[in-house]
Amino acid sequence: MNRTLVWFRRDLRISDHEPLFRAARRGVVIPVFVFDRALLQHPETGSARVAFMLACLAALDADLRAKGGRLILRSGDPVQVLPDLIRETEAEGIYAYTDCERIYGRVRDARLNEALSAQGMKIRWFEPPASLDELIPYPRYRSRWWRDMAAPLVPTPPQVEVPPDLPSDPLPSLAALEHLADGKPIPPGGTTAARQLLADFLSHKSDRYYWQLSYPSAEATTGLSPHIKFGAISVRECVQTIQQTPDEGDFRIRRSQQQLIARLRWGNGFTQRFRYLPQLELRSLYTVFDEDGWTFDEDLYQAWQQGQTGFPIVDAAARCLQATGGWQALNFRTRAIYASFLSNLLGMDWRFGALHFMRHLIDGDCPIDHYQWAMQSGVTHCLDKTWTRIYNPGQVAVDRCDPDGAFIKHWVPELAHLDSAQLGSPPPMKTYPTPILDYKQARQKRVEQLEKQRGRFLQCGNVVPYLADLPTDLTPFGSDRFAGEIDWAQSPTERLFPAALDLTALDDRQAIALRTWFVAHVNITPPKVRKRPPPSPVNQLALNL
Ligand SMILES: Cc1cc2nc3c(=O)[nH]c(=O)nc-3n(C[C@H](O)[C@H](O)[C@H](O)COP(=O)(O)OP(=O)(O)OC[C@H]3O[C@@H](n4cnc5c(N)ncnc54)[C@H](O)[C@@H]3O)c2cc1C
After folding, report:
1. What ipTM is given for this predicted complex?
2. CATH 1.10.569.10: does it fit domain 191-276?
3. pLDDT (average), residues 126-147
4. How far is the CA of 537 from the centre of ligand 1 (A)?
5. Which residues bind FAD (predicted)?
6. Residue identifier of the C-alpha nearest atom 11 of ligand 1
């Protein structure tokens, strides 16, 4: 009987999972998850997120068992572990989804392709829905997204037959993975928990989501982000479940459903941007924004992290992030205000903020996190001023996000006795710091700096030369602050799978298409085409169905 390895990565579910479905139809399945030290010890990995992943793995194992199978756990470098497992099980090869979240994963997958080819072994990569290998204009991507979301869900295999004698490591504890629990409550993981969150949302929140999603104390959002990050539920299942829920003719429900679906699409769009330009994990889209202007002050950075800035909404967000990992409590608007404070008002490189977020967020997802950070810092758009997001962290923010002060008073109890109208700028008191900056001055400084930087683009007809290339050194930002396993970062940059977009080889059509992803308000004309050798072929495992 045919035997196929299914390699789970950030797709920890058995439904709407094409590699698993197809492998189960071929015959015996070896569903495997590999604990990979390079990821577990990546500077941006947070313990709470690892704990949540363990919960999702336990749930995946239970779901596979309900189908007669189980999850096989192994530890080590997947480039060695997976060929060994193919030999051990005499499988024909591997089925897996491509994954563009991180540069490390793409280096690893390129190394795996080479290792398998060298040993005469095969892998078949599947594209997740709404993930494309070709560069197309953003409006066309939107149409493709809708088309992919409308496609029928891949059926859950009725049975998953796993070799009975195949050993698996036990599910490790957090400590065994060299992580310490840091007190954050971990939400239940897995598909059932995710479906329950969506059902609760549709029953109780969907008439108010659109209007209240910016109020942290309203808890009007789904709380699905950690599940989506680990693929415990597919975005397509979320979209179809929302669409199948009647709006009962209530425009509030209709508007909220539309808004939620749009946000799910944004998330996929960020991953697609990273697929094209993985360098966005490491640097700003335009080199000019990284070349001059950032300052760094360790004391101020610590004050921002610990919630000691003297701006209550910022301090509440800081403390909430550290205490909860952001799940449900730290919504989009509050994250944005908190992020903007570091990069725009304290003038610090957005990557320090993104690093701190990733180390604490339970839903930390590199493309969303890094691109949102870059957007809030104003460095993703080279001309359009509307993309300067400098939030006023004073009373304006309180009135917009937390008008009754419930979120602030919860996380900054020193201020619990104040009236909400005082929470924008509390009176001096011994127990709470005075503001660490003057908002108006800091804002003015940042506006002038961004105008100067953007001014360089005004006279240029072609922004491609200003786009940051993939650096030759792929060392993750933050490696100097947090030790990690980063030997892989010295790999040649052309060895990424899927491959990155080669900015030096864009033709006219591609250059125009790329522009639509980044809203550059000038023409982009391509440089001279320089051909690169084609990537080495990958053995695709035939689907003999
Ligand atoms: C600086 C910054 C960093 C962020 N980092 C992350 C991150 O690491 N991981 C993450 O999932 N979200 C991130 N977000 C986006 C957003 O804040 C979270 O998706 C949201 O708060 C998660 O809660 P929810 O699932 O209850 O949201 P809901 O409103 O219920 O949204 C459902 C899903 O839609 C997607 N989504 C919602 N809002 C956005 C958005 N603005 N951009 C992209 N996708 C969105 C997410 O997948 C989310 O789970 C970040 C936002 C900012 C400003």
Report:
1. 0.99
2. no
3. 96
4. 36
5. 209, 221-225, 363-365
6. 225
